Amino acid sequence: THFGFETVSEAEKTEKVYKVFENVAKKYDIMNDAMSLGIHRLWKDRLLHVMNPVPGTKLLDVAGGTGDITFRFVDYVRFRLRCQTRRELKSRQSLSWQQIAESYGQNESKSLGGSHAIVCDINKQMLKVGKQKAQSLGYTKGVSWVVGNAEELPFDDNKFDVYTIAFGIRNVTHISQALEEAYRVLKPGGRFLCLEFSRVNNPFLSRLYDLYSFQVIPVLGEVIAGDWKSYQYLVESIRRFPEQEEFKAMMEDVGFLKTEYHNITSGVVAIHSGFKL
Ligand code: SAM
């Protein structure tokens, strides 16, 4: 069962998932670091490398939670803009790289060159924690926060260049419906990217991973967040999620083309990619 209780209905699942993330919101970031020994940061960085966004990109980060993917997107775009502006300055003026770096304004470094990101999540509490983080870390420009369900997105058709969903899709009750919605809101040419726990393809690591997931993670959940059941749910939800090939086929069923996936850390997580063409 999902929570160690009786089997739950679909409506109950949505409600229980909501409660899980409401409970864990404040400790969510600390727990991610503790549970993955910080490795989730590298997985998220990898998603951005695969995305490789250019200035002007419109991103929809679904199940965006406390904003980790969006903040990386902003950093990535800012970095590209900085390089671009510096190259332009260098070609127009006979300044040294040192002088260019010094003259480079604070405002310019904050601009996103027409890029925009929307963090969309069903859970108000997660978004609240994310917004506070954005304020304190300086990720306010070009970022919006919207409450919404991945299965029924509050956006028009053909709006976004990139749709991301990181560690979110396994929590959605109807995965195919969420995929259809992703397809609908992407512009023609837009890209779907999903980062999610998947099937480990190394037998030794697989055994170790099982042991760690079922024996250690709920204990960490209890000790750090005082919440055994929510973390037990998270582990169980990973096991129920379709494996790499199956999820790729689900993406193709709703119309995505040029689909592929990359396993990371022997398939502990996978990045799935597909285009609306
Ligand atoms: N993407 C963030 C990250 O990588 O740190 C957060 C991932 S967190 C494990 C999963 C998020 O999915 C939670 O914030 C939860 O509220 C959200 N979520 C669950 N079901 C959802 C749904 N149907 N629509 C939108 N968000 C949902």
Bound molecules: S-adenosylmethionine
Number of structural domains? 1
Task: List the secondary-structure elements in sequence, H or E.
Answer: HHHEHHHEHEEHEHHHEE
Physical arrangement of strands within the biggest beta sheet: 3-2-1-4-5-7-6
Query: Can you name the CATH architecture?
Result: 3-Layer(aba) Sandwich
What is the top-level CATH class? Answer: Alpha Beta
Segments where pLDDT lies below 50 for 5+ residues? 1-6
- For the residues shown, what is the average pLDDT? 90
Please give the largest β-sheet. Answer: 7 strands, mixed
The structure class reads: alpha/beta
Number of strands: 7
CATH topology-level name: Rossmann fold
What percent of residues adopt helix (DSSP H or I)?
40-55%
Rg is 20 Å
By CATH, the superfamily comes out as Vaccinia Virus protein VP39
Question: What does this entry look like structurally?
Answer:
- The protein has one domain: Vaccinia Virus protein VP39 (Rossmann fold, 3-Layer(aba) Sandwich), CATH 3.40.50.150.
- The two termini are 39 Å apart.
- The longest helix is centred in the first third of the chain and has 25 residues, at 68-92.
- The chain is α/β, with parallel strands linked by helices.
- Helix 8 (175-185) links the parallel strand 4 and strand 5.
- It has helices at 10-24, 28-36, 39-51, 68-92, 97-103, 106-110, 124-137, 175-185, 203-225, 228-240, 244-253, and strands at residues 58-62, 116-121, 143-147, 160-166, 186-197, 257-264, 269-275.
- The structure holds S-adenosylmethionine (SAM).
